[in-house]
Amino acid sequence: MRTTVNRVLLALTGLVLLALGVSVLIGGLDLQRHWNFTMPSSWPFDGPKDVLLTKHDRTRYRGDGWWWPVVIAALGVLFVAALWWLLAQARTRRLRQLRIDSGDAQGALVRGRAVEHVLGAESEAFEGVEWANASLVGRRGGPQARMVLGLAPHATPVDVVAALDASVLERARTSAGLAELPAEARLRAVRHRARRVS
């Protein structure tokens, strides 16, 4: 979700900046007259000496009672939206610690990154898996694993997923004392350069 929102925000910001840059470039370089084309009558720049906002446009609403409250409210909304976006970048859904059953009725905490490292290393040991990344999300008592595996061209995805479930995830479930460890695995093909044969 966060990645999608980031991409949409970046795309919209890029489109706005691109449109503004093109309009300034066309007006600043006087391309309308040099290349003999016309722009719509609402186009903000008609030549190199035009400005985006005239003095009349900048001072038109200052005397009205609603002007400053609207400006302050709009800036406040922008500030809150930017602050929310910044905090959303810092917040992570990764599980920092995993609670395991230690047999003494108190339990123990294991670092989530340690479990992720083991899951990735054991996955890379399989034939056909060139690299693997793992992350744990969810709650301490009910974690979920998300894995991304880079498969070699000769690997069989069905065999890799079956081995992952029967070996790596089963060992993680057993060692952590979990009743279940739901997992989502994404498989990606690893591209190799063609080799020259002489």
Q: Cα distance, first to last residue?
A: 49 Å
Number of domains: 2
| Quaternary organization | single chain
What kind of sheet is the major sheet? 3 strands, mixed
List how many beta strands DSSP finds.
5
Order of helices and strands: HHHHEEHEEHE
What is the overall shape?
A: elongated
CATH topological fold name of the largest domain = Alpha-Beta Plaits
> Helix/strand-derived class?
alpha+beta
**Gross CATH architecture of the largest domain:** 2-Layer Sandwich
The mean pLDDT is 81
CATH class of the largest domain: Alpha Beta
Query: What is the CATH homologous superfamily assignment of the largest domain?
Result: Cation efflux protein, cytoplasmic domain
Would you give an account of this structure?
This protein folds into 2 domains: 1-52, no CATH class; 97-189, Cation efflux protein, cytoplasmic domain (Alpha-Beta Plaits). The mean pLDDT is 81. The strands form 2 sheets. The protein has a 3-stranded mixed β-sheet. Strands 1-2 form a two-stranded antiparallel ribbon. It is α+β, with helices and mostly antiparallel strands. Helix 5 (112-124) packs antiparallel against helix 6 (157-176). The chain is built from 6 helices and 5 strands. The radius of gyration is 29 Å and the shape is elongated. The two termini are 49 Å apart.
